[in-house]
Amino acid sequence: MSNNSSTLSQDTAFDLLSNARRRLALQYLQEATGPVSIGELATHVAAMENDIPVDDVDSQQRKRTYVSLYQTHVPKLAKAGAVDYDSEEGIVELNGDARMITSYLSPSQPDEDWPRYYLALSAVGLLGYVAALFVDAVDSLLVGIVVILLFVVVSVLHYWSARGNGSIPIGI
Fold first, then answer.
1. Higher-confidence residue: 161 or 17?
2. What is the pTM for the complete model shown?
3. Is residue 108 pLDDT above 90, yes or no?
4. Class for the domain spanning 10-105
5. For the chain, which residues make up each domain, given as ranges?
């Protein structure tokens, strides 16, 4: 297999990612546990493109995908150094230089609990405000200040949580 040890430039990475079929191929190679045949790659890419299970890919879908991967996309990925490709054996695998590219394929998912925290805090704030309207012992200004401070605390925690997961660039 060929191995291009140079680091991929940002322009090269964006050029490689500009095509949906190459993105799907890289995504599958990222998930694979090792080298795969170009035929297996074509089958999985065709399944992803058509949003169907791998077993439902017909021969025409597979062939169309195989031809474009074989003739265009895999050689382009190999030339750029993103994959190692043995054209004689028909085997392809992700190259170590592809880490920069694959980081764009699976962006970190935001923590799905944070909207719930904000919603709960909003509900508590609303209840506190309603209580302040009807109960003389509760000061509405104090409720407002407490709710605002709680939102600040939750926002800071959210920021640090996202920053720790790499979701927010350090420069921000």
1. 17
2. 0.59
3. no
4. mainly alpha
5. 10-105, 114-164
